[in-house]
Each structure stands twice: as structure tokens, then as C-alpha cells.
Design brief:
Elements: E1 2-7, E2 12-19, E3 25-31, H1 37-41, E4 49-53, E5 57-58, E6 77-79, E7 82-83, H2 96-102, E8 106-109, H3 113-123, E9 126-131, H4 137-146, H5 154-157, E10 163-165, E11 171-176, H6 181-189, E12 193-198, H7 203-208, E13 213-216, H8 227-236, E14 242-245, H9 247-255, E15 260-276, E16 282-293, E17 303-309, E18 315-320, E19 325-328, H10 344-361, H11 363-371
Parallel strand pairs: 3-4, 4-6, 5-7, 6-8, 11-12, 11-13, 13-14, 14-19
Antiparallel strand pairs: 1-2, 1-9, 2-8, 3-9, 10-12, 15-16, 15-17, 17-18, 18-19
Helix pairs in contact: 8-9
This protein binds glutamine.
Glutamine is lined by residues 45, 218-221, 246-247, 288-291.
């Protein structure tokens, strides 16, 4: 069945429908990773977005049981050049089409994804929607111009109830703004005791769990659309070591008084070079973000830029001058992508260890001990 993709600027691409028969719409973005379509389409940070994959052949290793970043994908649509209907991989359980149909995610194949990417790269990300070829283009463009992109997608993808993944190591409270499972995996691999809580859990409720460290996850949308989370972080600053990834990084920046802005077309892919300012080392990183921390706004805060993107100078890492707080704009859990920066999870656990040691030897504790 033929299907078209219409952008809000009137550009039309005609291809073929696969996945759900339902037509859908969202913000059209592109990802330049050559592999990892399963992780990409199940990453909750893409909630409400239609993702174009620039690699031309998609679906060739099928869908397996292991590589999901969440059970319920929230991506609005998938746009590919060629959809492979006969996957070949020992882990494959079903085809991409079967999976998308089951999850009610519409997709299109057979369009020039390079051309689409070049349009987005020069004009910026745009709203778009799938439609039957018979429907008049003008009518669709008018509909697109009338619709606004959703706000506060975090509430749609965050866990509703808290849950625990037990371990005998450090106690981590992981605030789920739309967490990729990869983040949880990194902590369980290191034997941590992880309590995953919803985005609107208060600072008081979090501190009652007596965390050794608080992890702020990735998540969809504009960081400014979750003011309650910014307030929570403000109340946690200085009381517990904090590590932020992607949306978590942006929320730390806002909580400390810095600003964020929307990038023209964002960073989405598996090969984004980032330079660490302290060591001079360059890491290849996995990225998926449309917003970034405003560099010039950092001077009014106690935050310092620790890493930046070599492609365009975007702030990619932050550290706090006084507190045990740091964050990165990219994904050290990779999934998909290079694992160069995986050691950041060890750095966080070391930070927690240092904090615990300092607490154990600090003067007020000795006084308490003497009094009792
Ligand atoms: N992966 C993320 O956490 C993305 C953060 C934010 N939604 C952005 O697009 O910039």
C-alpha cells in the first residue's frame, strides 16, 4: 500500500506503508547510526518523534528479545529507505514490520532518506505526518500548521510506580524521565541496589530512600516542560552525589540557573566525537538530543563545562564547582553505539564512595558518636 510523508513546509515524499496501518504525525528527526534500529525505536526519548534512519537498509537482522531500551516504544513513526522483509540473525524473533504492526507504530519505506535528511539539516526539524496518497497535500499541510507538538512527554513515559532492582552495592535512586534500560543495566552490572522512581517524586521522598547517589535519566521533550523536576533537583543539590544523562544533564543545568536552547536539527547517531577538557581525550559517543545547554549561561552558575562536541562546540559535559554533581549530554550506556564513555558509571560510583568516606570521617558524626 502506498503512503506519503508530508512535512509542514509542503515537502512530500511518496513511498510504501509498513508497520501500523494507522497514519500518524510528529516531529521529523534523523539518526545517522548504521546499526541499532531496535534500540533507537524503543528509546523513550523519541516519544512523539518520527525517526528517519539515514542508513539505507533497515530490518536486516530482525527484532530480538534482548535489545529493547523499553518494553513499550513511544516513537511516533519510522522512515526508512529499504525495509528488509527476510531478516537473517540467530537472535531474530520477528521482522521489523511484524513488530511495528504489533506495537501500532506506522512506518514508511521506499523514500529518499538522504534527501529528507538534507532538508532537515538545512531547514531544521519539522512537523510531519503520514497520509494516504489520495489525500490532498494542501489539506495535510494546513492540518500540520494547526497542530502543536506535544509538551510534557515525560509524564507519558516515566514509570507510574516505583520499583526496586535489588543488589548489595551502593543504593541508587534512579529518577525515570523516560529511562533507557541501558542505564539500569549499567548499575545492576555493578551490583547496585536501584530504586527507580517516577519523574514527579519529591526530593523528600527521594531522601527518605537514603540514596548513596541519585541518577537522573534521559527523557523526551523540552527540559523546561518539567519544572517540578527542576525544583526537585534544586532540593537535592549538595545533599547527595548526582549524575545526569541527556535530559538529566539539561535539568541539572536548569536547576543550577543555566539555560537551554533548541538545536536546529539536534544530534542523533552513534559516532559523535566529544572532547574531555581535563584529559584532552576524545570519545566517540552515542547521542540523541534536540536541546542543549547554553554555554554563555554557565558563567552565572557554579557549573563548568567539562566536555564539548567536536562537530559543533555544543556543551556535552558539566561538573559542579562545589558539589559532587556531574552530567553528560550523550549516552555512556551506549545502546546503541560505542562504549568509550562507559567508565562514567564507575566514576559516579567512585564519587559516591568518596562522599561516604567523607561523611564517615566528618566532625558532626564524631560529635554525635561522643554524645551518645
Ligand atoms: N535523550 C535525551 O534525554 C534527550 C533530551 C531532550 N529530550 C532533548 O531532546 O534534548
Amino acid at each position: 500500500m502506498k503512503r506519503k510523508l508530508v512535512l509542514e513546509d509542503g515537502t512530500v515524499f511518496t513511498g510504501y506503508a509498513f508497520g501500523s496501518e494507522r497514519d500518524g504525525g510528529g516531529e521529523v528527526v534523523f539518526n545517522t547510526g548504521m546499526t541499532g534500529y531496535q534500540e533507537i525505536l524503543s528509546d523513550p526519548s523519541y516519544c512523539g518523534q518520527m525517526v528517519t534512519l539515514t542508513y539505507p537498509l533497515i530490518g536486516n537482522y530482525g527484532i530480538n528479545l534482548d535489545d529493547f531500551e523499553t518494553i513499550q516504544p513511544s516513537i511516533a513513526g519510522l522512515i526508512v529507505k529499504e525495509n528488509c522483509e527476510l531478516p537473517s540473525n540467530f537472535r531474530s524473533e520477528e521482522t521489523l514490520h511484524q513488530f511495528l504492526k504489533k506495537k501500532d507504530i506506522p512506518a514508511i519505506y521506499g523514500i529518499d532518506t538522504r534527501k529528507l535528511t538534507k532538508i532537515i539539516r538545512s531547514r531544521g526539524t519539522m512537523k510531519g505526518m503520514f497520509a494516504p496518497v489520495e489525500r490532498p497535500d494542501l489539506e495535510i499541510v494546513q492540518q500540520l500548521n494547526k497542530t502543536t507538538l506535544p509538551i510534557n512527554q515525560v509524564s507519558q513515559v516515566s514509570t507510574v510506580k516505583p520499583y526496586v532492582v535489588p543488589g548489595r552495592g551502593h543504593r541508587i535512586v534512579l529518577i525515570d524521565y523516560g529511562m533507557k534500560h541501558g542505564i539500569l543495566r549499567e548499575f545492576t552490572k555493578r551490583n547496585c541496589h536501584v530504586t527507580v522512581v517516577s519523574y514527579d517524586t519529591t526530593a523528600e521522598e527521594i531522601l527518605q530512600l537514603k540514596p548513596d547517589g541519585v541518577m537522573l535519566s534521559n527523557g523526551p521533550g523540552n527540559p523546561k516542560s518539567v519544572p517540578e523536576s527542576i525544583q526537585t533537583i534544586q532540593l537535592l543539590l549538595g545533599r547527595v552525589p548526582i549524575f545526569g544523562i541527556c535530559l538529566g544533564h539539561q535539568l541539572i543545568a536548569l536547576a543550577c540557573g543555566a539555560d537551554t536552547h533548541k538545536l536546529v536539527f539536534g544530534h542523533r547517531g552513534s559516532n559523535h566525537p566529544v572532547k574531555d577538557m581535563e584529559t584532552g581525550r576524545v570519545w566517540m559517543t552515542s547521542q540523541n538530543h534536540g536541546y542543549a545547554v547554553e554555554y554563555s549561561s554557565l558563567k552565572q552558575t557554579e557549573l563548568e563545562m567539562s566536555q564539548y562536541a567536536l562537530n559543533d562546540g555544543t556543551v556535552e559535559g558539566l561538573k559542579h564547582n562545589h558539589y559532587r554533581v556531574f552530567s553528560v549530554q550523550y549516552h555512556p550506556e551506549s545502546a546503541p553505539g560505542p562504549q568509550d564513555s562507559n567508565s562514567l558509571f564507575d566514576r559516579f560510583l567512585q564519587m559516591i564512595q568518596d562522599h561516604k568516606q567523607e561523611e564517615a570521617t566528618s566532625w558532626p558524626n564524631v560529635q554525635t558518636f561522643i554524645k551518645s
